[in-house]
Each structure stands twice: as C-alpha cells, then as structure tokens.
Amino acid sequence: MDEFSLIQQFFQRLGSRRDDVLVGVGDDAAVLSSTDAGSSLVVCTDVLVEGVHFPTETSATDIGYKSLAVNLSDMAAMGATPAWATLGLTVPVVNEDWLSGFAEGFHSLALEAGVALVGGDTTKGALAVSVTLTGQVPAGEALLRNGARVGDQIWVSGTLGDAGLGLMVHQGNYSCSPDDADYLLQRLNRPTPKLGLGKALRGLATASIDISDGLVADLGHILEQSGVGASIDVSAIPLSDVYLDSLTTEVASLDLAMSFGDDYELCFTAPPEIHGKLLELSKQLDIRLSMIGSIEATPGLRTSDGNLISGAGGYRHFS
Ligand code: ADP
Ligand code: MG
Fold this sequence. Notes:
This protein is of the alpha+beta class. It is built from ten helices and twelve strands. The strands form three sheets. A six-stranded mixed sheet has the order 8-10-7-11-9-12, sandwiched between helices. It has a four-stranded mixed sheet with strand order 3-6-4-5. The mean pLDDT is 95. It binds adenosine-5'-diphosphate (ADP) and magnesium ion (MG). Adenosine-5'-diphosphate binds at residues 7, 11, 25-28, 87, 89, 117, 119-122.
C-alpha cells in the first residue's frame, strides 16, 4: 500500500464533520473558514515517541487516543474549545491492523471532542506521532500560567498518581488485583481531558495548567510565570482508593503522586471568594475538585508546615 492509498483509507475522514472545514485531507493544505472577530485562535502541538511517551507494547488504539488526548488537555488548560487537528505520523512499516486501530482510537475521541482531522503528513521511520490542535477561545479569556495572585487558592481536578502507578503495573513493578490494574492502566492509556472544566473556569481561574509532568513541576510553572510562591497541604492531595491502597507498599508514595506525570488533570488558582462557587461547579460537572494550598508572596513551593518541596519531580527531556 502506498502513502496515498494509506492516507485515503485511514485518515480521510477522522473525527467530527465541521461546517468550517472548507477543504480537509487531500489537498496541499486545509482551508478553514475564519472565526469571528470576537474569538482568538489557540494552537498547541504534542509529539509522542515510542519508548518515551508510551511503552513499546501500547496498543495502536490507545496510541491514537492518547496522541489526541494530550493535546485536548492543553486546550482544556487554556479554557479553549478544540476544533481542527493535523497529524504527523511516522511508522516503521505499513501495518493495516495497526493503522486501523490507531485511526479508531483517534476518531472516537475526536468525535467526542468535536474535532475534525484536516491534514497531516505520513512518513517512514521510528514510531512517532505529532498532533497539532487548533481551537478557539473568546478574545481575552484564555487561561494563562501567569495570573496567580497572592492569596489565591490552589485547586486540582481528579486524583493524582494513578497514571504513574499504571506505568509501574505495565512494567511489572507493581502488582495488585486485576480490577485495580485495569483502572490504573486505563488512567495511563486513556486520560480524560478536562475540556468542560477548562471552559467553565474562564473568568473564574486566575491561572491554569494541565498536569502532564507532575504536580510539583507543573504548579512550579505557574509560580515561576506568576512571580509568586505557594504552600500546599500535602494531606489534601487527592488520591484514588486504588492509589491509597498502594501506599501500604514500598512502591508508591505521596511524593510520587505529586511528581509522577501523565495525569492530565488541571491545576488552577482562584481567589478564595469563589471557593463555594467552585465546589458547586464540581458537583455540576461531577468532577472532583480539591483545594490543596494557597499562593504566597515568598517564592518557592512549601508544605503547610514550612518544609521546602524540591523541584526534583517531573519528567524532563535532556536532563
Ligand atoms: P504534500 O506532498 O502536499 O505534503 P501529502 O502527500 O503529504 O501532501 O499529503 C496528501 C494529503 O493527505 C494532504 O492533504 C495531507 O494533509 C493529508 N495527510 C497526509 N498524511 C496525513 C495523516 N497522517 N493524517 C491526516 N492527513 C494526512
Ligand atoms: Mg507531504
């Protein structure tokens, strides 16, 4: 199968049909109708490399799903609504089963998120997936990393550490019941981007980031860019029941839950006056929201009893 029939068979019509896609896959470039003057475009790219961002044995469907999910998570962090995606795909061989699994994983999530695949490039080489996603946000309302103010409360969605523990399950370094293992692997391979939450936080959150590299590292980016510090109540870090069970073993710890990556939850700051409103929002969206600390003037990240939390956590390429 050559490059062109491959594209036609697997990537011609992935995701949602959108009226604003005038020309999609098939020409030299996609043509999209301009958005209204009241909104800004939001663009992000994430590259996933086999063996670095997903273990070699990950299923094609999960890779297809996750390559879009991590980008949707960036859109969520910005408070944006995703719309159009392009896909740079490098595969070592043309394996039709693999390609159709990949397309299925990508398509299912793209449909759910209202995203159309409008173009891309397909090349031969070591397995790598690069997705570029474009979305929209009302002008001036994008949630940035630099808006945290002294006195703001720090919030986290969902639970932390599950994906990292899932990787340990995958690697054979943590054993638990089959049900728990399923849950943890699902959290690793099928993260749920918090798009609804991100949108709802427009006009409420002062700063926001998605947790891809671990809470300590990602909250660190908010602190740095906002020119502030913070203290967090470690006992308020939200953990799933499955993760709590793992604390009795030597494998997992609270520290790891704060530095493991791949959770794709949102961490955001907001003034204390809207604490109640956020708890209401949590009920409305049926998403767990936990207040874990507050923004302070003194730079650095501390526990509430004043111990410095080192920036050692978090995955860094090239270090
Ligand atoms: P060009 O040579 O002009 O770069 P290509 O032959 O690479 O065009 O691609 C042909 C068409 O197929 C283009 O519209 C391109 O956007 C699309 N395309 C190629 N690979 C992919 C892919 N993996 N996913 C989606 N669209 C793709
Ligand atoms: Mg090309």
